[in-house]
Specification:
Length: 156
């Protein structure tokens, strides 16, 4: 028996474009992806430049604004771009880390890459689609959400 009421769950998609959202949903449904690693956006006025923070300070920043970000245990419905429910997911972890500090074990969860340099090149190309070139470097702050699929519902 599920430990949630599907009618009470929040629904959303990952990704900024239709192709990206649908690809991520497909990869999660297929079990190829269990993490979402993306640019961290913080609109708090007191945060000047998170690139200057240590990884420990990033975790403190996250703790101070915990209500704004996913938390371990959150259960939601993953949709495709058009809002069609795909599956129920649970966030099992969420954190902030500098791009250059992300270890292979975490990178593997996102794309299955077994070579950290290959993952970093692919991720840098992806980041350049949303950030100016001078903002993509080893200190760029990324958010890492680890997820698990609870049910493959595929409602479509």
């Amino acid at each position: 028996m599920a430990d949630y009421d599907i009618d009470d769950l929040f629904s959303w998609h990952y990704g900024e474009t239709e192709d990206e959202a649908n690809q991520i949903a497909s990869e999660i449904m297929d079990g190829k992806r269990t993490a979402i690693i993306q640019v961290f956006v913080d609109d708090s006025p007191e945060v000047i430049n998170t690139n200057d923070y240590t990884n420990e300070e990033l975790q403190e920043l996250l703790a101070e604004h915990r209500d704004m970000y996913p938390k371990a245990g959150d259960i939601n419905i993953l949709t495709d771009w058009d809002g069609n429910p795909q599956c129920v997911i649970r966030t099992t972890g969420f954190g902030l880390m500098h791009f250059g500090d992300i270890p292979l074990e975490v990178a593997e969860l996102e794309r299955g890459d077994t070579d950290l340099e290959v993952w970093q090149e692919r991720k840098a190309d992806e980041l350049l689609q949303v950030l100016p070139e001078d903002e993509v470097h080893s200190k760029t702050v990324l958010s890492i959400e680890i997820i698990e699929v609870l049910e493959k519902l595929a409602f479509h």
